[in-house]
């Protein structure tokens, strides 16, 4: 048959918009198109990234054969057998010479649930290493740590997205959804109509502009002062008698300590710290207490060295107001990557086994080892989080396999990271394009794209959705499941290594049984019937898991006191604060979207947003090339002079590589709880580029 179609979901962000892929192979030039499909999260809508996603399937940049580094330094095509033999030999030799933890795995939040699960198992069983973590550490780790601590469970939105439709007030902190997931805006319409969309962002972002003309309020705090802002709002809620005392008594623990902890954040102090007028602070607190309110956080408040404390403060505010675990109000975090939710549930994290279980828990080790058919005592201990793991490259770690991540663009302090990657004995990268990380590899393994494979993803709502194959993979590309099975076989690894996504999902469901993220009872076949499937599933879907009780043993949510003690900036002589973020037309490190003509044509380069007063003082004109620098590196970008940004702040997108790579400037310092790096508060100097 020359025409094929499949109902599937967008390859990009966590909204997982539903789409149908049509593939017409009737002519020599096969055509693949996508169309939006009705679904609660996107209601048939797609953003520019979704509409153009099929272009990647036929991209001329697609890798079709494994590549191996030659003695002359170039990458050249080789056979799968040769490539896989070389990978297995590298893992085997490294382990024999340096021990199991000298092998490492770095995964990604865009991998299907099946691949994320298999990657965790591959690290622990086939390699016997504790050294595995993934790029979700740079994305969701702070919110995840805060939610686990407060609720005993981390599900991004513990309610369906459509619940937001009836909100009267939405406090949106650090999320530019108008750029990252435009179909989500439909769910803000109710709050906007009620005048209750409150956007917290140091930039007048596209989302912040939606508050204008009576639709809400834009709070524009100084960068890095989200935590004092939330502490101050909680202070006002308690001081003005707006707290829900009956709810606090019945459903939470720790209120007295929390009340003491926010006592010092009186409105005038909060205002002087954040730059937000006292009247706006009071109005925000009162509006949140007036009913029908939701508090949502995004990376803007989470990607900080105090990200866990900030997310915790947002949760505390929501709990004191009695918003969580009730229909018609709530707290949630907007997961970013396509499978950012599932990617953190199945064992890619350094300290976790499938089902969101702690690898330190003896019962969890027994259960998962039983599913895997191995001795629980032989499973490695907890490893180290992503930034620390990347810091070991070329030192204790000698061989690294990267799957679904482009770390030399997305990690902090990439110039130093590039040197460490080059110091490895062997770098293996699985990708469908020659990403900037793959360019450094010794062996590159070409893999399938989203419309060529079966699997599942878990959306920002905790909803498990099916990814379906619409067309055959190009000759030469293989699934990561097949790659792991082939390497495991060459290493003589214990356990079974299925290459069938449905079988791997069944194993994943068994391994997760009894865990927090319990997928037991689900299967590809059941999902294909069109059921709604939110985890924890067991025998039925759980769209709102906190309605009766929270996931802690006592059923209560924990109010955890936090304080605002941001570390002093370390860069001498730097004068502006750099905030990194996103464009509508680009996605993450740009590996995919920089190869889509329409998207890259609209946003071909990084632009430095700078306030007119600051630009004038520094002698910078609109469109001029500028150098943004600090002690770690220099970025070149054209200036975009705009009043959308504060005079003390500049903005760069992080989607670009080379001279434009914003992460040449960010520092590999991390949140002590979540190990989230600091991406939103980097001190820099800006000057006209001397080369112009
Ligand atoms: Fe894809 Fe996200 Fe855009 Fe939806 S909002 S089309 S999931 S990138």
Structure notes:
With 692 residues, this protein is an alpha/beta fold. It is built from 24 helices and 29 strands. It has a seven-stranded mixed sheet with strand order 5-4-18-17-16-6-7, covered by helices on one side. A six-stranded mixed sheet has the order 23-25-24-29-22-26. A hairpin with a 6-residue loop joins strand 27 (667-670) and strand 28. The model is unreliable at 569-573 (pLDDT under 50). It binds iron/sulfur cluster. Iron/sulfur cluster is lined by residues 10, 12-13, 15-17, 42, 46-47, 49-50, 181-183.
Topology summary:
Layout: E1 3-9, E2 18-24, E3 31-36, H1 48-51, E4 67-69, E5 75-77, H2 80-98, E6 103-107, H3 113-127, E7 132-134, H4 141-151, E8 169-173, H5 177-180, H6 189-193, E9 197-200, H7 206-209, E10 216-219, H8 226-239, H9 245-251, E11 252-253, H10 255-262, H11 267-274, H12 278-288, E12 293-297, H13 299-302, H14 307-320, E13 330-333, H15 340-343, E14 352-353, E15 357-358, H16 362-372, H17 386-391, E16 399-403, H18 407-410, H19 414-422, E17 426-431, E18 443-446, E19 455-458, E20 464-467, H20 480-491, H21 501-512, H22 524-527, E21 557-558, E22 576-581, H23 597-602, E23 607-610, H24 612-618, E24 625-629, E25 634-641, E26 649-653, E27 667-670, E28 677-678, E29 682-688
Parallel strand pairs: 6-7, 6-16, 8-9, 8-12, 9-10, 11-21, 12-13, 16-17, 17-18, 22-26, 23-25
Antiparallel strand pairs: 1-2, 2-3, 4-5, 4-18, 14-15, 19-20, 22-29, 24-25, 24-29, 27-28
Helix pairs in contact: 2-20, 3-20, 3-21, 4-14, 8-11, 8-12, 8-14, 16-21
